[in-house]
Amino acid sequence: MTLTGRGLIAALMIVTVLLPVLGVAIWRRCRGGRVVVGVQRVIIVLMCQLAALALVAALVNDNNYFYTSWGQLHQALTQQFSGVGQSGQPSQQATGTSTPKVRPSPGVLAPSVPTDMDPASAGRIQVHSVTGTPAQWSRRGRLESVTILGAISGLHEHAFVYFPPQYFQRRYATARFPGVEVMTGYPGNDIGLVRGLRYPDVLERLQRLGRARPMILVMMRPSVTFPRDTECTDVPGGPQALTFFAADVPAQIARSYRVKPVGWGAIGDSTGGYCVTKLAMTHPLIFTASASLSGYYFALRDGTTGDLWGGSPAVRHLNDLRWRMLHLPAPPVSLLIATARTEKGADGYTEALSFARVIRPPTNGTLLVSPTGGHNARTWSGQLPSALTWLSAQIARAR
Amino acid sequence: MSLTGRALLVLLILLSVISLVVVLADWHRASWPHWVKNVVRFTLLGVNQLTAVALVFVLANDAGGFYSSWSDLLGLSNTGVTRHSVHRLAQPGPTSRLRGMTNDAFASPGQRTHRGQLVSLTLDGVASGLRVPLDLYLPPQYFQPAFARRRFPVVEVLGGNTRQPRYRDPVRTAHLYLDLLRTRHARPAVLVMMNSSLGRHRRQPCTTAPGGPQPQAFLDTDLPLTLTKTYRVRPLGWGVLGVASGGYCAARLSLLDPNVFYAGAAIDGYLTPPHTASASGLRRTASTQHDPVVADLDNLLWRLHNMPVPPARILTLTTRDAAPSVVRQVSALQALARSPLRLTVPARRPSSSLAGQRTALSWLTNHLPTPTPVLGRPKSRG
């Protein structure tokens, strides 16, 4: 039984109803003194409550795609992160440099444009499956399920890549399209961007209405070495997550498809918002604009990240976006900060405003405030059309 | 009662406790049939389940700030209708500015298709915050009709460490390169010549600067962004050639940014920058000199030993004038280099820096992508 899907929910529903029934059945069978009977009955109540909590947790997870497999959940619950230090022996697990066994897939597509880069380069894209038939692609676009192996970082991750209908139309046969990296929060899975926030559907509708240009979406989760939350950071002596997202992904996609190698956009929610803002601020040559939905702008450390900075305050500062805006030259990129006026918490309204206030030229900043909402998918769905329209306009402007 | 307020939390705690007490008390009348008593118990167990779920939800929501109000939770507020307020923060500021003029002494406009063109420029980089004088050499092919719609690769040439703000002798380098082109030892590329001090008399220009102007950003961001807007050059797949501290830049840029700098050539370049007090001009908001992590990250040998090896192409040349420490470091580099890094260290050492430049320019331009066609419709800059 998969962790997401109706099977588990149905099973948990049955258990949630069954346990109280069983509890009633054995209520009067509890034997012993008053205290012992009391303890037994408390246990019955707790079991019933646990079942109900498990059912609700499964429903929430199913809705938000936090964990999509039992393996992920197990990893998340059992991993401890103290961080990677300065020792000369990087742990294989931490750097994630073990090369995956990439099997040749029968569905591997030849790149449609001959690349002039060295074919022996270390990265590649492995295609697992695509949607639709060739006849449908020029009308409905295409969604691919791929694994991207980074040439510089050596890290690999699954991604969903969306191609708009124009990509397959004869009129655009030699055109290169702009690329956009789309990120989830932590924990999260890229399937949530397709089925939950529905990025391809929203973009396709905006394209039809003429409010956005055709763009290629590369949808990923930021935790490239899951279960560790690397916060898109180049960890000293550890996983080079920033390099993976900022350099490897755009280069690999541009090598394999008709996508521009520069002038990318990026959009994400929560941790994804922090990541995409950092991508644009640290790599203005590759990324021209980023949109952050309920993101944060400080360098985060908690139980799921461990020490991402090798103990160095300087490295921590370099990952603190507010610090960067205050102490380094402002980068020539466009940043969208989206939040909700009622959003509380460390990545809520006050955090967004505090970062927005320090944005200065030549950085082009825009603040998008929803009157109501919070740190949830419904709020982001409401902001998505405006954010994608904005992103498309920035990318077009920078050409 | 607000979804996120304390009143709701207190209420739910009370309800949880009360419902637990009630179910444990198992109160009933003796006259009730069994099934009624069981139904009551079943219902009370269900109520306990509900209070548990509600309490855990409110605790989690308070901690994570997911839903800010009842209407947010229940989806009653009309977030589907985009009535967001949008604020423009700060006016878009200056972009990098490129100013300059052609050096007609080198080649008159009529001679461009045979001799190329030398241009003296100054670039005010916004990403780096630096103003750097440049000398740009456009090869003859740039002006020939056969290449009229082709984008050329660029080679950044970083002059040795002198106190002068400008590159020492762009005319000599241009002649040298033109000679290589004519004898087909090199392929056509645009040369951007500057001093490795990048106009600021810095002795270690490419080390991490955690505060203030960012010299490395001049080389890997300002130059590519600005030159692609003004000239027919590729945005990526550049080469970089440097002498001494410029050699460190060349090695570092090709190791850290192999997508932007496809190949790098270092002449007498160190790989472990000496972090001495003479690195003046650095506004210290956090001290690199005393930060061992940053020192390690700036040490190219440490990086090759402890981090994933990048798919870079590097040529290292050591002349007879090279310091012994540089020679040692290059040997160490050879020992550390492994696939996918391709390191070339010629057996024969160049006799001078000039001879080294010849070798390096020839090697670099032969390893960069050839001029690529401008794709798509004319106004696109793909």
From TrEMBL, chain A:
Pfam families: Esterase. Residues 84-93 have a biased composition (Low complexity). InterPro entries: AB_hydrolase_fold, Esterase-like, Mycobacterial_A85_antigen. Keywords: Membrane, Transmembrane, Transmembrane helix. The chain crosses the membrane at residues 6-27, 39-60. Residues 84-112 are annotated as: Disordered. One of its GO terms (molecular function) is acyltransferase activity, transferring groups other than amino-acyl groups. The keyword tRNA processing does not apply. PANTHER family: DIACYLGLYCEROL ACYLTRANSFERASE_MYCOLYLTRANSFERASE AG85A, ENTEROCHELIN ESTERASE-RELATED. This is Esterase.
Automatic annotation (TrEMBL), chain B:
This is Esterase. Pfam families: Esterase. It comes from the Bacteria. InterPro entries: AB_hydrolase_fold, Esterase-like, Mycobacterial_A85_antigen. The keyword Transmembrane helix applies. The chain crosses the membrane at residues 41-60. One of its GO terms (molecular function) is acyltransferase activity, transferring groups other than amino-acyl groups. Keywords: Membrane, Transmembrane, Transmembrane helix. It comes from Flexivirga caeni.
